[in-house]
Structure formats: C-alpha cells, structure tokens
Task: structure prediction
Amino acid sequence: DKQLSRGEWRGGVRLTQIPTTEGAPARVLTSEAVEMLLKPDGRNLDTARTLAPGRLELIPAKAPGGAAAREGRRLLTAERLGMQFAEESQLRVLRADKRVRLESEIPPPAPTAARAQRGAPAAARPTQRVTTSDALTAQFTLASQELETLEQTGDFHYLEGEQQATAERAYYVAAEEKVTLTGATAPGIPAMILGH
Result:
C-alpha cells in the first residue's frame, strides 16, 4: 500500500483550498504547472509551489451573521509562488519571487452610530491597494489563519488612492497594523510608517 507523497500537475492548473478554520479565507492557486508534496501521513500538505508564473487569490469568508468580511479579497501574482504548511495543512509561510504584485481590496470602515446619526452615507466603496516588489514573504497564524507578518523586498512600490511610496523593504505587522518602510527612495523619506 503506497501512499501518494508528491503530485505534479501541468496545463491550466486551478487548485482550491477550502479552509477548515472558521473565518479563514479560501485560497485559489492557478498556474500552468504546480508541484505539491504531502507530509508522511499522505493526507496533509507539506509544500506547494508553482513551476511557472502563478496567481493566488485569497477570498475572505463572511463574518458571522452574514456581515461583510473584515478583510477584502487579495490577489497575488509572481513568477514563482511557494507555500509551506503546518501539521493539518494550515498555511504557515507564503513566498513569492520575481515580478511580485499584490492587489488588496480594503473594505471601508464600519459605520458608527455617531456617523449614522449625522446622516453619513450608508455604504462606502472599498479602496484598492497595490504593492509590487522583487520578493514577498508572509507568515500566518496557525489557529486563525490570519496574516501575521508580511515582508516585501527589492524595489518596493505602494499605491493606494493618492498615497504612494517606494522603498527597498516594507515590513507589515498585523497586530500593530503598521507598515515600516526602510531604504525609501523618495527624497527626504529615509523611513516611514503607514497605518493599515
């Protein structure tokens, strides 16, 4: 009885990972070629990587009660994508190399009671954030599968509405909701911190 330990798919590959953790996003990986390695148990993922340019879409789960998701949809593209998984196929580390582009939909802030009383518009539109770089490494919490840290290095560019920034490195810590830029190339901006 041999167990499958490695799989390779070619030709318009589309793999969907439905989360087992409540509230975690679904993941859709597409590429012309994907290789996956399983853990010794033969059931759980160990690693997955594209062997050609790839695209990973993170589709947020609805909040309890059907409310809007806290995070918006994210789309990551790169020449190569790689993922490392924990014991039960939870995503632990995501890496992207060469021509990295991350598009993030940022939901509008939830309306407050005070804003509603002042007659503020009921539904604001989400904004679009685009970052590009040479490489990206993201780490996720095992229990909730939420983003923990995100690092983009090499020719980093940031665009969200009127805000723009360039740097050599960007490091995001989710618990602090801050991005630290180092090696900024814009004149007079050696480093800056942006709110989430």
Q: What stands out?
A: Residues 187-196 have pLDDT under 50 and may be disordered. The radius of gyration is 19 Å.
